[in-house]
Amino acid sequence: MLKLFYSPGSVALASHIALEESGLNYDTVRINFSDDEQKAPKYLKINPKARVPSLVTDRGILTETPAILVYISQLSPEKNLTPLDDPYAFAEAQSFNNYLGSTVHVAHAHGGRGSRWADQEASFADMKQKLTQTMTECFELIEAELVKGPWVLGDTFSICDMYLYTVARWLPADQVDIRQFDKVASIFNEIEARPATARAIEMHFS
Amino acid sequence: MLKLFYSPGSVALASHIALEESGLNYDTVRINFSDDEQKAPKYLKINPKARVPSLVTDRGILTETPAILVYISQLSPEKNLTPLDDPYAFAEAQSFNNYLGSTVHVAHAHGGRGSRWADQEASFADMKQKLTQTMTECFELIEAELVKGPWVLGDTFSICDMYLYTVARWLPADQVDIRQFDKVASIFNEIEARPATARAIEMHFS
Fold first, then answer.
1. What does the DSSP 8-state code read for residue B143?
2. Cα B111 to chain centroid, rounded
3. Could you say which of A99, B63, B125, B130 has the lowest number of CB atoms within 10 Å?
């Protein structure tokens, strides 16, 4: 059976929502970042990157959100969580998810995890000070150029919407008002209202 | 026909090599970062992120290296550039490429593009000073945990090897000696020796 390692409020929520939407059977294991459990030897055997999510499968362990989201979609093709049968549409979904992973999530991480890339407190403060600007710029691009509407990929709900929802949940902490982005806010509210999301959130924060 | 927008020495080289390996017909357009061509209105219509690569297709324009590499693989399935028919093996390839895109490439970017995430010269210097350490840690993880050997995915050459080669080309500038990573160095030399790589490099740097 699938087993998802997550920490509450992390990007692992996207995989968690996808698992709920997929109808697949799975277990979860909570990793408490507040206790540095992600750096414990026991967890490093699961994921030597000391990150979440990690998805344990019968074949091995998968990491990285865009990879996990597609894998979950492929295990539940009848749910149409990703346009798997059209290479171009699939590439568009991948492109969107890769932008969230390599640019937006990274921008957000500079608010609290500057020590990944620098050593001085003054640098961390500088990064933190720029956070609202960089996240606003990311979401301006998402709103104007990347989201087709009503869903990210157009008429079809997909893993891209779940991932966008997860990253957009960080906007208040980054002091960015989601209401300035109409299409993003609409997707956020739609995903928030889905029963699968409610179940994943309940597990994350209970 | 496919058209690849690239800048010499950028991560677009991975897509360029993949196009050469694929046997697909394509054109290229060089974007000179030294002249800020990536920020010109003409290019922003191609890619509003002001980045490379961009792959123009008959259906639209694709960005983000992991997405483009898989798309090229899907257009040339007879070349087996990605394990497309095995969801788990495909997820492993995706996971590897996402790590390069969202962690390793990002770590490297802190050497010269600190202004994406901070404003002060002192912060840029701090990031630059940490660059060798972060890139070394990334490649230690790649060597010890991610590369199966002899290729990234084991016995089968794939887009992961082309992408790893492209990112590893930055190691000398980041003052990291590739020779400490046996498996990575072996892949680097194998990719470097392939005719497709030579053709892509020739176009990049001529």
1. I
2. 17
3. B125
Pairing of the two strands A26-30 and A2-6: parallel
Q: B8 is written with which tokens?
A: 């010499």
Our CA angle for B28, B30, B33, nearest 5°, is 150
Q: DSSP code of B117?
A: T
Give the amino acid at A156.
T
CB B44 within 8 A of CB B63: no
State yes or no: cis peptide before A48, omega within 30 of 0: no
Given the DSSP bridges, would you call strands A54-56 and B54-56 parallel, antiparallel or unpaired? unpaired
Using the Cβ of B145 and the Cβ atoms of chain A, whether some distance falls under 8 Å is answered with: yes
Is A115 within 8 Å of chain B by CB? no
- Token readout for B31 is 């974007």
Q: In what order do the strands lie in the sheet with A54-56?
A: A26-30, A2-6, A54-56, A61-63
Provide the pairing of β-strand B2-6 with A61-63. Answer: unpaired
> Chain B partners of A66 at a C-beta cutoff of 8 Å?
66, 94, 98
* Least CB–CB distance from A48: residue in B65, B123, B145: B145
pLDDT of A206: 79
The H-or-E segment that residue A30 falls in is: strand A26-30
Q: Please, what's the largest Cα pairwise distance for chain B?
A: 51
* Cβ distance of A74 and B90 shorter than 8 Å: yes
Owner of token pair 């692992």: A12
Chain A interface includes B22 (CB < 8 A): no
Element (DSSP H or E) covering residue B133: helix B121-141
| Dist. CA A206–CA B20, nearest whole Å | 51
Is the ipTM of this structure higher than 0.95?
A: yes
Token code pair at residue B6: 């690239």
Q: Which of A108, A109, A83, A85 is nearest to A96 (CA)?
A: A83
A123-178 pLDDT, tens digit each: 999 999 999 999 999 999 999 999 999 999 999 999 999 999 999 999 999 999 99
CA distance A3 to A9: 18
Contacts of A187 (CB under 8 A, 6+ apart): A147, A150, A151, A152, A161, A164, A165, A168
pLDDT interval class at B66 (50, 70, 90): very high
Task: State yes or no: pLDDT of B149 exceeds 90.
Answer: yes
At residue A205 the predicted structure's pLDDT band, cuts being 50, 70 and 90, is confident
CA separation for the pair A71, A195 (Å, rounded): 21
